[in-house]
Amino acid sequence: MNQWIYFLDLCGTSVFAIAGVLAAGKYRMDPFGVIVLAFVTAIGGGSMRDALIGATPVFWIRDPNYIIVILTTVIMCLILVRKPHRIPTYALPIADALGLAVFTVIGAEKALSLGLSSMVAVVMGAITAVGGGVIRDLLCRQIPMVLRTEIYATASIVGGICYTLSIIVGMDSMTSVLFAMFSTLIIRLSAIRWHLSLPAFDLKKKRI
Questions:
Q1: Average pLDDT for residues 86-103, to the nearest whole number?
Q2: Which of 14, 86, 100, 144 to pair with 133, CA 20 to 30 A apart?
Q3: Which residue in 115, 142, 13 sits closest to 70, CA to CA?
Q4: If DSSP codes are grouped into helix, strand and coil, which group holds residue 150?
Q5: Percentage with pLDDT > 70 across the chain
């Protein structure tokens, strides 16, 4: 199972790197800016997690395969983005949702493996999943998506809770992983499909 999770982790890293490249293209950044956004989006959350729980050196320093995956993804994106054919509009949101689910489980599992509490594990799962996107949005001078009404971080939190509860009640590791990932995916994909969002906290005065 560890090899399977590792493979999904690398795939999620690639997906989030693509999201960083697309954000860089939206703001017309130079190649260095593209690489920076790809890196922070893909490994920013995991780096924050490892720094907070003291798992140093952080994962991508110990395993350079993450760097290789990100650089390869950036190069492929810069080449393919100029081709006439287009990637289906639904492909990236679905892949991003899968990356969100994978990173949530990985973050929660790593916290539990170090003997941290279930509550901390849920928080670490969410940080792993959304932390990179927060850094990316801040660098682009945007309000991070997780602080707006879109259901994104909420899906990660629910997935983290499902994973930790599954471990507590004694489910085997594979079942716990699949249950947590499925829960995260269902919530995130439902939010995308039906444009679901949380209510906004609005203090603007009503006009008389």
A1: 82
A2: 86
A3: 13
A4: strand
A5: 94
Tell if the pTM clears 0.85, that is, is over it: yes
Tokens representing residue 81 in the block: 């983005």
The answer to whether 21 and 74 are in contact (CB under 8 A) is yes
The conformation of residue 145, written as its DSSP 8-state character, comes to G
Please compute Rg for the chain using Cα positions. Answer: 17
Question: What is the percent of the chain with per-residue pLDDT over 90, rounded to a whole number?
Answer: 67
Task: Please compute the mean of the pLDDT values over residues 88-103 and round it to a whole number.
Answer: 84
Q: CB within 8 A of 24, min separation 6: which ones?
A: 33, 34, 36, 37, 38
Record the tokens describing residue 112, joined without a space. Answer: 């539990």
- Minimal CA–CA distance to 7: which of 122, 96, 102, 92? 102
CA nearest to 53, candidates 1, 131, 141: 131
Q: Tokens 């928080």 identify what position?
A: 123
In the numeric block, the tokens 């994978």 are attached to 102
